[in-house]
Fold:
Amino acid sequence: MNIFDNIIFGLGVAISPLNVLYCFFGCVLGTLIGVLPGIGPVATIAMLLPITFKLPPIAALIMLAGIYYGAQYGGSTTSILINLPGEASSVVTCLDGYKMAQQGRAGPALSIAAIGSFFAGTVATLLIAFFAPPLAEIAFKFSSADYFSLIVLGLVAAIVMASGSLLKAFAMVFLGLLLGIVGTDVTSGIKRFTFSIWALSDGIEFVTVAMGMFGFAEIIRNLELKTKQEVLTSHVHNLMPSRSDLKASWRPVLRGTALGSFLGILPGGGAILSSFASYTLEKRLAKDPSRFGKGAIEGVAGPESANNAGAQTSFIPLLTLGIPPNAVMALMVGAMIIQGIVPGPQVMTERPELFWGLIASMWIGNLMLVVLNLPLIGIWVRLLTVPYRLLYPAILVFCCIGVYSINNSSFDVILTACFGLVGYFFTKLDCEPAPLLLAFILGPMLEEHLRRAMLYSHGNPSVFFTRPISLVLLMAAALLLFFTIIPAVSRKRQEVFKE
Amino acid sequence: MRKISHLTLLALFTMMIVSVAAGSVFAQGFPTKQIRIIVPFVAGGPTDVFARLVAQKLSENLGQQVIVDNRGGGNAIIGTEMVAKAPPDGYTVLFNSMGPIATPSLYKTLPFDVEKDFVPITLAVTSPNILAAHPSFPANTVKELIAMAKAKPGQINCAISTYGSSNHLSLELFNSMAGIKLELISYKGAAPALNALLGGHVPLMFNTIGLMVPHIKAGKLKILAVTSPKRTDIFPDVPTFSETLPGFEAASWFAVWGPAGMKKEILTRLNSEIAKALHSPEVKNRCKDLYAEAIGNSLEEFARYERSERAKWTKVIKDIGLLLD
Structure:
């Protein structure tokens, strides 16, 4: 049975009225929770898990999948409109997306995000259909030493990402690393910086830091400045991107899709890296990098495509091997087991209707989402005209509900408020929170892979240079660092020479 | 003093009677409202799946809602503490794997007392752990592995899913009984560990049998031994550890506990109902599909089993000096 036959077979399964209905329901729900700050796909899928008992297996999985990639579409909405990232992958969209919204260009930003996401979702679905097994094999080639080098590259990229003072970026990175250490160490089981508080023994949640430092801090700042949001956006006429917008965006969308598709396969946070990596790539390749951070549309087009592609390809390890690469996929495994499906390499051959039906419905879902989201942009932009004194309490309430829903813990909510204060002070000090967040995510991963690579090689550090993947990545990181510092150094020299 | 109207007096009297009657009705008509099963892990994992199977059947049998409440965090401590502090009316119970109640000596301090704060209700499910290897690993039996390990001490790595889990303890038991030292590498859960094993980055892994069956059947992994006292039905040719190391026994087990202080009638009722759910063909067969065995024994049997497990693992933990801090 060749691939095309399989795809037609899958489409046949996916187009059945029941499956289309559940796909639609999943996509709508996913968009909704993506838009609502705080509540994310993990919490939602966990809540819906008992209901999947009663549904037929394919419909249940189609719905849950729809929630997951639907949330990626919706997540960009709050990032752009109110500087509130709902997911780790939406943080980067805040940087330029929110600035665009403040300049009255929320419509184009949201449109490009939706269009880019659709393109990326489609391409990724095709990749899964054609290349799932070999792509899964590539993921196996990555050992901890290779992950380590990949993350080193990511951290160097964090420095490139910063648009302000380099020293402040370094400071934020180190603070992020420190915050990331809080919790239980994977390799030794020792608790660090938990101050005997059990709620901290699993570390600080990403959503807590992101919501606090981006969302709450922004609200405090806005209240202080008494900026009237509606003034800034009341003159939005065009909701669609202009020709120049589209021209500027198509290449970032392509690059973001490629990056996201590849990084999504890597288990353990590959998809998170994709949006950060795309942002850095676009900034490096842009003719005028200083536009980034001030409303460059490439900074929205690339990362949004990357995170959608990453979300889709992260299904590959689940569908081909039965191994979940992230928390959402782990829930899908639970859903499969409840349905009596044992996840593993045999799913492809023993339950082809499940495998191909799910893949086909992903494409249908992406189509539904772009048709759903584009008209909604008008409504979202209209939301910004609501007086701020009514808007911000609603945002705060939803954020608190969202943060609470992760662990049913009020401690998390209090912690978010604390980070809100901290984030507010950072804006006063003109320090960007984005490098802190990146280091917060990557730091613990860096340490985990470094120590594990050393365990694998029994303490031999040359493994980072003898493994080909690792060597290539480290060289790329060194080059990136070199080319970032050289212009700064040569500028300094020119200043000296002028005198 | 103002004269209390007859109506008021009558109302007060009725209220008193009703509340007294209601108190005794609760004990007889248990359950009269929703029962909450607390699973101290995030949804989707093995503990959660088994809990949901039981909850579903229990709900059907009792005609009352039985919900699973996931309270993950702190390596199951947060959810367990919640049950310790819950009212002992039978409407909140804990469904957990071995966890902190059976292995309290892993921790310096715990926010509850494992013997005083809980009452064991029943043993729900057991599943053997296995030692699996990447096909390229030279040893094919436990004997060969022990010989290899003795020849090159500290050079062979073995993966476990999380520090302090049942498969970690199986590894430590193996190390101490065989007199070898396999270097343990822990991960953030079973999935990353399995990834590393399949990719050949780590040669061995201890984990539950259910996780690895599909890959063993596909030839991507080979199985060396099982930790149960008897050979398994799925792999009848695979020896048990106890054939090479007499007395070796380590299983993954899942059980139900309640907060201490529950009334005897409610305890007995819960035990018999949960056991009935576990003995039903649906639950029995689903567990079998997951390579686990549904048990559902009596209050005394489980209490005995729990005590003996706790004693056994306390000894192993103290001997190696393992501490989770």
Confidence is low (pLDDT under 50) at residues 22-27 of chain B.
